[in-house]
Amino acid sequence: MYSQEIQSLMKSKKLKIGDRVKVLKDGKEFQGFLMPRIEIGDLNSLVIKLDNGYNIGLKYEKRLKIQKMGQGIKLGSIPSKKFSRKPGLPSVSLIATGGTIGTHVDYKTGGVFMVRTPEEIVATTPELENIVNMKTMLRPFTVASEDMNHKHWQELAELVAKELNKGARGVMVTHGTDTLHFTSAALSFMLKNLTKPVALVGAQRSPDRGSFDGVMNLICGSYFTGYSNIGEVCVVMHGTTNDDFCFAHRGTKVRKMHTSRRDAFRSINEIPLAKIWPNGKIEIGNENYRRFDEKKVVADTKFEPKVALVKSYPGSDPEILDWYVHKGFKGIVIEGSGLGHVPTGESGVKIGEFDQKFSWIPQIKKAVENGVVVVMTSQTLYGRVHPFVYRNLRLVYEAGGIYGEDMLPEVAYIKLGHVLGHTKDVEKAKQMMLMNLAGEINKETDPRSFLV
Amino acid sequence: MDYKKLGLKAGIEIHQQLDTRYKLFCKSSSGMREKEVVGLIRRKQHPVAGELGTVDIAMMHEMMRDRTFHYQLFPHESCLVETDEEPPHELNLEALEVALKIALMLNCTVPDELQVMRKSITDGSNTSAFQRTIVVGLDGFLKYRGKKVEITYINLEEDAAAIVGEENGNVTYRLSRLGVPLIEIGTGLLQGFSPDEIQDIAFNIGMLLRSTGKVKRGIGTIRQDVNVSIKVGERTELKGMQDLWTMSKAIQNEVTRQLTMNDIRSEMRRKGVRRIRENLMEVNSLLSNTHSKILRQMLDSGASVFAIKLNVFAGMLKREVYPGKTLGKDLAEYVSAFGVKGILHSDEDLAKYAAVEDFQRIREHLHAGHKDAVVLIGEHKDKGKVSKLLIERINAFLEKPERETRAVGDDGHIRFNRPLPGAQRLYPETDVIPLSISKEWLKKLKKELPEPWTKKLEKFKKMKLSDDLAKQILRSEHMETFEKFVKKRFQPIVMANVFTNTLKDLQRQNVDVSNLTEKHFEEVFHSVSSKKVMKEALPEILKYLAEHPADSVSVSISKLNLKALSKTELVKIVKEVVSQPNIQFDKAVGLVMSQVRGRADPQEVIRLVKKFK
Asked: Where are the beta strands (DSSP E) in B29-103?
């Protein structure tokens, strides 16, 4: 957005964004197209796109003269693709929700818009036409993944179930990457009796560039949904920084582990279910998965939103738990340290009141007494929490916290919302939290599953 | 050739790496010194459709080549920004300052606000498939022989990765070069200049860049492109000249090529041919008994050999498009851009290839008469596609001149590279915020501009350096040291010779002169001016120091026994020699010199021998 001064100048000269203009300043003449101002930089500088394609900024001053030379350029449109039906190819549905994979850079203005329709997304990867029939393409909503919440997860689960029950062999969901693993966990819990592949696919690089990583992710996601015999929700993203293959990660065992790399998504505490090459080869890496079947799936989307994910750390103030209890939260997942510790002030040599002030034990006790389900997970992400190895762990246990095995904190958070959506009975909820519902708990950990 | 009459127009584009500590958008070193490859990344790239839904022609060309890119990683010279795994960091201000100075030196207007742009690049040389570039100067000029040469733009941009090699659709690049700050300077269309003058203008710009003291030197650090067209031709971009002195030759070759292609076009039209009919067939079965080694190799490699009949084209393929390259060879280079090894055609000496009978058989099958030419191509992928592209190529130039880019070889040969891309697609790099350039900053930079190199040249000439030597020292990487030492009253001619000729000689002897430090040079020149050693002894001393960099100059002098002789010592030696009975003057000088070489001035020896004889 331009400054008030420039806006009124444009108004008085009847100038529109995109108009061809001539600007005179300090005896120099510049010709080009008037560009919109992206929200950064000097708002009091006109942005002109010169004929050689470069943009320059010209600071607005009284002595600057601007003149309209001609009609505006049409802002860019991007190609979209309607797929032709090819006999013999499996039918899958595509649901687009937003995120980098669904952004569109307007080449003229440089503006980034999150507006790609499913048809525009698949147009980036024409190869898909020879892999699957895109039976249906849907866009229920368009949001960046950080803006998602349980309502989006519920809507998505309903849609996916509907598509699968209408006959799609699988469903591919395009999604922003930041919270892709929250959505994959939510869908894993909500899609009961799922026996068909559901792939969540995103991109770490934008589609405006030739190095767009979404191309391979979409191709591999299509093979996964159209051909694999895995009947689960998986995140399908780059396996390495190379454009070699994708991993299919189980929806409840995956996490974004890097801000920007292509291979940011890693399976945690588990070996990825499959490797998928862009030529269609699928190699199972972990036999522990639900096999493909044509059964009906049920969208069981009840969810208790009053659950929280809280991190404890050295020096953290335990009173944060009081706030949640006071606000009526029904469940809290604590991301503790190591095997599942919180500060207790009970270890080593006492140095007075100081220790007690930081102890989380009284607050955990109070929460439990108020009927809040408290689940302990670990910020190490890798490994399993354990209530008995150290005395401090036992204190949490005695206070009524339950230990969430090898569940990821985010997954435990989603699961707790799901479980409390189904029962108000605290004891039953605790039981369910420790039961494996959707592959989120492994009772044995494969030694090869660390840092893969 | 009368270039004015031919309507020669040329635009120069110069790419010069800046010698900054870091790369343009990250904190990796821009040194490009590392040799050890510590990792390899494999990527694919995909054509991105533009606003109108069309894929650029140059992009299509790349897509047809369907290549895999391999990127080599080097310690400290390639981070996640270079691997396209992290957004760019803030702009390198050291590089921007140099770029702004160059813009001011070339009388350009600097925009009030700089906007980083992404320019689409499709050959894999950028991991992101675009190059970040900023226009820092517009509408400037350079004075050349009393005329104003227009400087259209000056951009500051990221250098691309350097190609290591290409084999079977796999291209390897070094990431150490990707992101190194690069300045790009484009002139307006130069008219009324000869190829030599155009080359000289490029030289002038290069010298101006060097005068900043902040540009990299050595092979590959400066690359020149030149757009060439004549009245009867179309714009051809001659790309990648690392050696400036090939520019004039390359322009001459290109002008000749455009003229020849025009001649061929007119000649074919006179013969009534405007298009070649698409007439081709696979001929593997006709070649099963071939005696030709080259054809046998094609068949053994699993290729389908296609024969193309070019009607009324006999003799054309052996026409030289410019001295040293036939049309046949030029077309062979064209198809090699699509992964085909080469072609065999009827205008070649078929007996040499033992393919006379094969061609006869094929001619019969194609119903090709003696006026027709026949071309054989061995294809591995999408069979017949490249053969059709070749026919298309011929038809295209028969219709009208083609716009394309050509790569320039060291010898000035120009080789088909790819079609000229459409208007370059640029769009803003939104990961970097626009940068305002204050008037105060520009004012400050103006005060810091280096002395014009032409003034320096005059100054050096006043030091009694020859024109050639003065120009050499001006281009030498030791120029600043030279100027510093001049102030210390060391002898300019001695120093200039050492910094140019002596070092070059030593390099030729494989002496690693990069071991020589400023301190070495200072001590060496000091020894000369204090008459401790003769200037004649310098090559040997420097060689010794390069090989033993830890030793001091005095140690090297005594080890090599090169201490200058005192007058008394020299007189003593001369007297001994001339006292030999019946000794001739020349022999005496020779004998003395053999004893005092490097330790006495030869002129002085001659004088003394004369005196005492």
From this structure: 39-43, 68-73
Q: Which residues partner with A230 through β-bridges?
A: A291
pLDDT at A51: 86
Shortest distance between the Cα of A338 and any Cα of chain B, in A, equals: 30
Q: Where are the domains of chain B?
A: 3-260+423-428, 273-401, 453-560, 567-612
Give the active site residue among A135, A196, A256, A330: A256
Name the residue among B537, B536, B546 with its Cα closest to residue B503.
B546
Is residue A94 within 8 A of residue A174, CB to CB? The reply is yes
Catalytic residue status for A177: yes
Q: Are B327 and B409 in contact (CB under 8 A)?
A: no
Fold of the A4-70 domain: SH3 type barrels. (2.30.30)
State mean pLDDT over B490-519: 91
Confidence (pLDDT) at B414: 94
- Among residues A19, A178, A213, A406, which one is catalytic? A178
Give phi and psi for A19, each to the nearest 5: -65, 150
- State the alpha helices, DSSP H only, in B425-517: 439-447, 453-462, 467-475, 479-487, 492-497, 503-508
Can you tell me the distance from the alpha carbon of A272 to that of A232, in angstroms, rounded to the nearest whole number?
13
Q: For the whole model, what pTM was predicted?
A: 0.87
pLDDT digits (tens, 9 = 90+) for B13-37: 999 999 999 999 999 999 999 999 9
What does the alpha-carbon distance between residue A422 and residue A406 come to, in Å, rounded to a whole number?
A: 23
Nearest to A173 by CA among A156, A195, A152, A196: A156
Residue A227 CA to its chain's centroid (Å):
24
- What is the separation, in whole angstroms, between the first and last Cα of chain A? 45
Give the pLDDT band (50/70/90) at residue A298.
very high
**Is the Cβ–Cβ distance between A228 and A267 less than 8 Å?**
no
Q: What are A70-128's pLDDT values in tens digits?
A: 877 665 566 777 778 889 999 999 999 989 998 877 666 666 677 678 888 888 898 99
DSSP H helices in B530-584: 538-547, 553-560, 567-578
**pLDDT at residue B64 above 70?**
no
Least confident range from A29-43, A199-213, B272-286, B357-371: namely: A29-43
Tokens of A29: 């003449």
All residues at 6 or more sequence positions from A50 whose CB lies less than 8 Å from its CB, including other chains: A30, A31, A32, A56, B135, B138
Closest chain B C-alpha to A64 CA, distance in angstroms: 12
> pLDDT tens digit string along A380-438?
999 999 998 888 888 888 999 999 999 999 999 999 999 999 999 999 999 999 999 99
Q: Which residue has the higher pLDDT, B425 or B436?
A: B436
Catalytic residue list contains A142:
no
* φ, ψ at B418 (rounded to 5°): -170, 165
Displacement of CA B26 from its chain's centroid (Å): 26
Instruction: Please report, for chain A, the start and end positions of each structural domain, with discontinuous segments joined by +.
Output: 4-70, 91-299, 307-433
| Statement: residue A366 has pLDDT above 50 | yes
Q: What's the DSSP call for residue B500?
A: I
Residue whose entry in the numeric block shows the structure tokens 């010592």: B569
Are B135 and A105 within 8 A, CB to CB? no
pLDDT score at B52: 45
Q: How far apart are CA B336 and CA A358, in angstroms?
A: 73
Domains A91-299 and A307-433 in one fold: yes
| Homologous superfamily of the A91-299 domain (CATH) | L-asparaginase, N-terminal domain (3.40.50.1170)
Nearest to B115 among A57, A77, A207 (CB): A57
Domain A307-433: give its CATH code. 3.40.50.40
CA separation, residue A175 to residues A144, A201, A302, A322, B401 (Å): 8, 6, 22, 35, 48
Query: CATH second-level architecture of B273-401?
Result: 2-Layer Sandwich (3.30)
Choosing from A97, A174, A177, A179, the catalytic residue is: A177
Closest C-alpha to A374, from A437, A315, A429: A429
